[in-house]
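Worked example (supplementary).
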Amino acid sequence: MASDATAVTHNSEPSYLDYKGKHKGIFAWILSTDHKRIGILYLVALMSWFLVGMTLGVLIRLKLLMPGDFLVGPQTYNAFFTLHGVIMLFIFVIPGIPAVFGNFFLPIMLGAKDVAFPRLNLLSWYLYIIGGALIIAAIFLPGGAPDTGWTFYIPYSVRTSTNMIITLSAVFILGFSSILTGLNFVTTIHRLRAPGMGWFKMPLFSWGLYATGWIQIIVTPIIGITLLLVIIERVFGVGLFDPSLGGDPILFQHLFWIYSHPAVYIMAVPAMGVISEIIPTFSQRTIFGYKFIAYSSLAIAVFGSLVWAHHMFAVGMSDTGEFVFSLLTFLVAIPSAVKVFNWTATLYKGSISLDPPMLYALAFIFLFTIGGLTGIIQGALSVDIHLTDTYFIVGHIHYVVFGTAGFGIFAALHYWLPKMIGKMYNIKKAKAAFWVIFVGFNILYFPFFILGWLGMPRRSYNYLPEYQVYHVIATVGSWIMVAGILFMLYNLLRSVFSGEKVTARNLWGGETLEWTVPTPPPLENYEEIPNVVDGPYEYKQNDIVEEV
Amino acid sequence: MEKQVAQHIEKPGHSYGKYIVVWLALLTLTAITAVVAGVNLGEVTIAVALIIASIKSYLVLTVFMHLNVESKPFKIFVLVALFFLIVSIVLLFSDFSNM
Amino acid sequence: MSTQEHTAAAHVHRDDIGSRMGMWLFLFTELVLFGGLFFMYSVYRYLHHQDFYIAARSMNVFIGTTNTVILLTSSLTIALSIVAMQNGKKILSLILQGTTVIFGLVFLVNKYFEWMAEIHHGNFPGSPELLSQPPGHILFFGLYYVMTGLHGLHVIIGMVIIMIMMRFTMKDVITPDQTVKLEAAGLYWHLVDIIWIFLFPLFYLIT
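After joint prediction of all chains, the assembly is encoded as:
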């Protein structure tokens, strides 16, 4: 956007990385309330956990090369997929983009010096680390790693002898971390926008974080109380879900999914916000239908809270309930589709550059479309009765969650990491890694749809011989994808230590405020808060297109 | 848009009076609920009790918690939270009330 | 519009509206936390209407009503303590804050005796007397202990918060010009009161 002054910061001011405050060494980081340092702290922890979750995925795929007894026993296998889900969801993609890129860039993109509650922000990170530490404890303490699946269904979550209480406490604490981040961002967006930046002059990434923040605040406590009740049942024998005491295990599922369905929008909506930033920059065109995209983020938050029982179509709900939830599930696709149409329309007659961030953004649109369409398939009751709890679902969730949140994180890394650290990665290597990942991803996950259609159940240690060929293809795909991911991470990590130094403020030709501050940004972002005049994404290309 | 002029809420005259009046109303409503509970009106009893509880909550929210002098976003926030709770329970019952 | 026009030049960032907004958002999380329990109560009461009615007969309406009056009055005292501080009456504010804490303590003591009485009658999770009852009866008491227990925990948290505010008041961190911390503490306490306003009829008055 054209501010009437580019951000006034003297280049002689030290960047946030070099700033010397009252703490020394490691304490300058782990006691820092600077949103940028907290973003980096989250980045390091998040990517470390990602490698753990990814390793578990590789191990699962290795076991599934052969049916029956192979490599590990069934108990270990159950622990593998439970931890893979818990780590990837609660520790990687839910904190994900808000914790790293929201923390780092939201204040800068709004023209602010920090978030509304910087100390609460640091507390969020401490809670995140404690939650992660408890998961490590759950794995290694006697009792053994949890084996219930990440959904902790009753009655097994009460009866299993594995370390459930520690695991559930970890998820509770991670939920609290998530709530505080959401609360911080919602307040920041209401209160700290620069003068002149009305709601509809905010970047779309902010709109995404705003909608996500509301979901985090409103629904996370539901899983908090539900998991707390499971702990209480294990410790005190209060059988609120125990059928022998009149409790209803289906009620557990309802409560669990009232959070866990909107949770997938906590994962996806910030990533959609990232894509809404990248597409205009690399098309050098303003986003098509800004207001529609902004409102669609809110609509996803609202509708996404009304569809939870589509995870339960085969458990024995009433016909009325099933009908209502199926109908609502179809409706939630509409705002998502609006985004896909608008991103595509933005590309039209744009000046497209296929830099790495754009490659990941385009892949996002492709993968999300496949994932989303398979979601609609599952929303149809008659079809879902056959597909639920099969590999079709596993294919769907990886296309939507990995395809949006995962590729969103990869896209954001390639877009913003150089701004964060002042070093550029190798573009050629980044593009090569992208293609390996993209091809590997589809070889890995597309067969899941076929497996599911043919009847292969999910979370199953054993399987019929006719499924093996698809499992082998998928496992080979996993190796290709992982090789690509490791190559991508190596390229990015190398740039941290010996990448080409970049000091240009605007690395990609973006028009939002983060491209007006120095690279890397100084401690308080702005010496003078900018006065905002125009909306975001005001590109020259806009005028050319309108003349046609 | 929110008015940003005052950094703290203006309470007219900083008076104790209106809080005491609301407190007396709350006590009265509590007494009414307890009395109504003694009368057997079947399902109506619990409906009346919940309506009175809602009125009491409304008084606490608007007067004690100053919602009536906060800017519009705060009021919208409360409605959003209530909307979520109400819609969720209605949808929950779409399953349980039709078994 | 934003606060930045006023705070950009200010050396210390202060945003009372933002502080209250943060507290309100946090209160929603508490509301939904208990909301989940209220959902369960609603479903189980619907499914076991008669058993709930019978189980509720053993609740002590007198203690329940007394506790309701205590909490409502404690809400009054914390609200008045803010007015007192804004009027510059530091000692009066401190007394009112302290009174609120004492009311909280009395509430908890009453609850303790109430729980002891129920446990004495064999109405506790896992007891043979309770387990011999129909499922709705067991669920009623399960919900009773969890909901009033969680609520009691929040009363304790609220008391601690207000005691911290008392210390801030004594140290002049809270002044007639800077009351937002006390207001936030008050908001928390009022929410604890509102939750009880709904718990009271659902457990004590459904007979």
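Two points are worth noting when inspecting this output. The radius of gyration of chain B is 18 Å. Residues 1-7 of chain B have pLDDT under 50 and may be disordered.
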